[in-house]
Amino acid sequence: MMITLPNTLRGLALGALCALSAFAHASDPLPSWNEGPTKQAIVKFVQETTDKNSAKYVEPSERIATFDNDGTLWVEQPMYVQLLFALDRVKTLAPQHPEWKGQEPFASLLKGDLKGALAGGDKAILEVVMATHADMTTAEFEKTVKDWLATAKHPKTGKLFTEMVYQPMVELLAYMRANGYKTFIVSGGGIEFMRPWTEKVYGIPPEQVVGSSIKTKFETRNGKPALVRLPEINFIDDKTGKPIGINEHIGRRPVAAFGNSTGDQQMLEWTQAGDGASLMMLVHHDDAVREYSYGPDSKIGTFSDALMQEAKQRGWTVISMKNDWNKIFAYE
Amino acid sequence: MMITLPNTLRGLALGALCALSAFAHASDPLPSWNEGPTKQAIVKFVQETTDKNSAKYVEPSERIATFDNDGTLWVEQPMYVQLLFALDRVKTLAPQHPEWKGQEPFASLLKGDLKGALAGGDKAILEVVMATHADMTTAEFEKTVKDWLATAKHPKTGKLFTEMVYQPMVELLAYMRANGYKTFIVSGGGIEFMRPWTEKVYGIPPEQVVGSSIKTKFETRNGKPALVRLPEINFIDDKTGKPIGINEHIGRRPVAAFGNSTGDQQMLEWTQAGDGASLMMLVHHDDAVREYSYGPDSKIGTFSDALMQEAKQRGWTVISMKNDWNKIFAYE
């Protein structure tokens, strides 16, 4: 007894220490964020808007947070993931389209000349998207996206694209939801390209995804009703389209909005123009070692000087990936 | 002690009885539905789809139920509520539009000749809607709707329109939500006409309302960003538009759908075409005493013979307001 008692006590003390350490860890909902003003701003906002005694209190039903996807929640370099998907689809579909050999932008693409293909600008990109995203049912498209994402790899890291999501943002999504926020994606990307995987990867269900879309048509195929995707733009959820898409899909103004490029400017302006508390943040890609470094000169995810100036003037927080995040991807 | 003990016991017994009675009452989530096959079908469906051991079990995330609004959740006779709103707006706005005196359908409307005004058919209705629903910000429109609904009365009952909602359907919405279902409105009515009040009246938040819409434009007014409503149709959420709207807004197929007219046919077909369990129901207005009685010949809420036949063939339940509901409105 005289020997076992101290051991027991030591064991208890050790257990208590472990529990304390686990508690300290569990009590930080944002472990991938470095301590500093950015993390403080997030925590302060969430604490104030959920504290009934705070002047900044927001009713649970009004706790709407919107997140851009490309460059905000997952990687968008060296090219939008959806564009890589479309390029792969061109190769897969080429045998059924012998005419593509003599038709731009497909001819260049099939020769591996990406630069030549994209020389046609937005029109060329649109042609590639329509040729690869339309003329099939919504169910067929969903399967195509799922199948592709299950094996396609990021050209630089060799990881699955669904692993190329920013761990600090995944923590932020969960933290906001734990505090009664409804999290939405509001992206220029295709709504039906995102919905098959956002619930699993981000915890965001299909009905909380807003994005660009093409038109669909209801018809009967093989005796069953089907929605067929048409080669016709329905909505572009970018720039001024973001507040329009938010109003159409959500019908409430967000109190928090997160983006990373000029495409998100109006979403943040719209959010800030609400009556009560609001939080606006822009992810800045300034970490060439762990991810990418790009800004005003990048065609993908342009973070213009004007946007940086507007962020300063309006008090929007610019998140430095380099300084604010101690981890970028979960696999690190 | 010998006197008080039996009293205490009597008190306890009485308390137990009261508790039991309260429990019996609380245990029926659909008190306004008469016992019978319709109510049984609802309860059986909900029990089976929420029972993990049932072959018909539906994962919580997939529990999507869609409800038409006009004629399914609230009254649509003698005219769609939104049309009554538009007609009232014409009168209010007339002093600002002297040209309306010589311009149909406004001239007839202002003379009180509704029949003459609507002789122009859908085109006339569209003109009235555009003249009264556009050229203002979304915030201004929301206020107009709220102000109107706060005082406008149903022409037959003299009740507020928000009191003209079907109590059995309100109970059904709550019952399904209590069992993990996410309830959505999918209506041919204007999305922004419904959103200002559906949360309060039905417990359905704006982000779960799908409807017809006009286009909006993002611009800066008085130094603040605003969404301005344009006199241009964006989407008609009726007939084949319903599955399209469901796909666009929800991104999942419903497992339960409730409607009341030919405008809901494709929504029910789309719901039934899913892989697992599904429930399709149509409210039939067959109670001229307590509400209205109308069917194939009504221009509003047409329940065609073909729809009745399809319901029988496909096993959809037709809800008889007369026989299945012991109460129609909460104020009865």
Describe this structure in words.
Two copies of one chain form a homodimer. Chain A has 332 residues and is an alpha/beta fold. Chain A folds into two domains: 31-80 and 155-324, Rossmann fold, CATH 3.40.50; 82-133, no CATH class. Helices cover 42% and strands 16% of the residues of chain A. Chain A has 13 helices and seven strands. The N and C termini of chain A lie far apart (48 Å).
What would you say about this model in short?
Two copies of one chain form a homodimer. By secondary structure, chain A is α/β, with parallel strands linked by helices. The first copy, chain A, contains 13 helices and seven strands.
What descriptors fit this protein?
homodimer, 332 residues, alpha/beta, Rossmann fold, 2 domains, 7-stranded mixed sheet, globular, disordered N terminus, HAD-like_sf (chains A, B), hydrolase activity (chains A, B), hydrolase (chains A, B), signal (chains A, B), HAD_sf (chains A, B)
